[in-house]
Design brief:
Layout lengths: L2 E6 L2 E6 L6 H9 L9 H20 L5 H15 L18 H18 L12 H5 L5 H37 L4 E6 L2 E7 H26 L1 E2 L16 H13 L4 E2 L3 H6 L2 H27 L10 E2 L17 H24 L10 H27 L3 E2 L1 H10 L8 H4 L1 H14 L3 H7 L5 H13 L4
Parallel strand pairs: 5-6
Antiparallel strand pairs: 1-2, 3-4, 7-8
Helix pairs in contact: 1-4, 2-3, 2-4, 2-6, 2-8, 3-4, 4-6, 6-7, 6-12, 7-10, 10-11, 10-12, 11-12
Amino acid sequence: MKTRIEKDSLGEYPVPADAWYGVQTARAVDNFRISGRMPDRDFIIAHARIKIAAARVNARAGLLPEDLAREIERAAQAIVAGDHHDAFVVDRFQAGAGTSHNMNTNEVIANLANVALGGARGTYAPVHPNDHVNMGQSTNDTIPTAIRLAILSKLPRLLQAVHALVDALRVHGARWATTVKSGRTHLQDAVPTTLGRELMAYAWTLERCARRIQDTAIDLGDLGLGGSAVGTGLHTAPHYAKQVCEELSALTGDALRPASDLSAQMQSMADLERASSAVRGLALELIRVANDLRLLASGPRTGFAEIRLPAAQPGSSIMPGKVNPVLLEMLNQVCYQVLGQDAAVATMTQAGQLELNVMMPALGSALFDMFDWLTNALNAVTTHTIAGMTCDPERCRAYAYASVGLATLLNRAIGYAAAARLAQESERTGRPIQELVREQGLMDEAAFAELVERAALGASA
């Protein structure tokens, strides 16, 4: 590989000749061959937008020459548009705080700007990575800000995926609103309900999870950008923090503002942990819902089989014709991984010391994974499983009328003790409650069936 030699404060170092990045990035590539995972796309874009906003504010303050600011912005805008992402090459597990990624961005933008101005890669004149691209900034305030902006970019996509699932569940819920089935508590027979009510309850719960995730966006918009190294605003232009947030708001469409305490937002990752916690809450509910749907679809002959899931692929390498609920199994696996990433976020949130939390690169990566994995998993589940789900109303009804829990419907008529004896007799003999009720002259079958239907449909019936 052809190389060029660049120099930093540690001395000379080889850099690939055609690389847009520079010496500090090259050192980081060699130092951190850890996961093989490159930076998150939304994070790359968010960090480039910070460079645009900073260049605008610094030029307006007369600190950055207009021609340099223009080329810095042009280079960063190309990155925002999706160009040169292959130039961001530092592993996600890297130097604390994210200095390596910050310099990766600074060097790429500087080289792009210098080439546009007629210079060569690696010369850093007239645009210097530190003096110009990083003007008024520090890793310590740009990286946590970029993490926040990246999450704010991902958040609508996750919410859209949740709402699509909620909508699909509600379509089925409305369709099966009167499909009577047995309720089950403790995985034992209970009083009747409807399949529609079960699905509507899932939808309601998941929508509430989405609201809690949405609520985290407010605090994520409180930025420590402008705090520079330790929150004092060292080397920043007058009113920089306010103006750079205004520029970023215009660039992103998000409601962004300087935090009332810039130091606090550089020390504390609590807002990011809160977002992680909200996503964890969604994952926990999704695990429960996925497991319920797998149980309701179990069979086809020896399980519940009250619902049927579309066949996505053959389910066994040895058992012909077997079909498994593979999308829901995948969702479970993703949710378990999300729980692990949330635990990592919580641990790293408390790992900061004094003016800085150096765990930000891995903390941000864990959050990015949580949002992206769940978004993709939910879209796949909704499209390939939930949308095509069907039910077997006759099987639902048969289970409902076979349930020992129907004895509960007679509590008011004959009392709890007598109803318990009826349930015990049904359990002992295997005869349905409806048959015993008719035989004992408590109620004819038609009247009892009407009682079951009313109970299943609830107070609105």
